[in-house]
Amino acid sequence: MNEPYSVEPVTKIDEVFPQDTNAYNTLFGGRLMSIMDTAAGMVASKFAHREFVTVSVDALKFRRPAYQGDLIETTARVVHTSTHTAGVHVIAQRLNRSEWVTEEICSGFFFMVAIDSQMRPIPIPQFTPKTTEEEQMWNKAQAARDAMKNADQ
């Protein structure tokens, strides 16, 4: 189990429905976080063939709103690992149906822990960066993880 089963990203598409929006017809931030968290869990499971739970989320950067009727394209990729944890970088983009052009609305790191049937952490395969870009993302995820750990002390 040293090698990941897949290092390919997961992309999912969701539609912004009326119940997902506030009084300004923009997507609730919590709903977007849920969409992003789901994508993070999917890619972690694809990577390790394990069940995962979210242990922490780095500060998300909400850049632009999404509106009722938009599509949300969410792409998640495992960019960091430790013994039991997958660090997942998630990018959410909105697609306006009339222009069909993507615009990034939010991004951040989700840290997912693999668990067994008793909800105990279990080991996962390890991700090894192979490109300069992968190494940069690894370092950003490590910095985010370190900052969260230091905040707990």
Brief summary:
This protein is α+β, with helices and mostly antiparallel strands and 153 residues long.
Describe it for me?
The chain has 153 residues and is α+β, with helices and mostly antiparallel strands. The protein has helices spanning 29-48, 132-151; strands at 10-15, 51-57, 61-62, 71-81, 85-95, 102-115. It starts with 9 loop residues before the first strand and ends with a helix.
List the helices and strands and how they pair.
Blueprint (H helix, E strand, L loop, with lengths): L9 E6 L13 H20 L2 E7 L3 E2 L8 E11 L3 E11 L6 E14 L16 H20 L2
Antiparallel strand pairs: 1-4, 2-6, 3-6, 4-5, 5-6
Entry keywords:
single chain; Thiol Ester Dehydrase, Chain A; six-stranded antiparallel sheet; 2 helices; alpha+beta; 26% helix; 153 residues
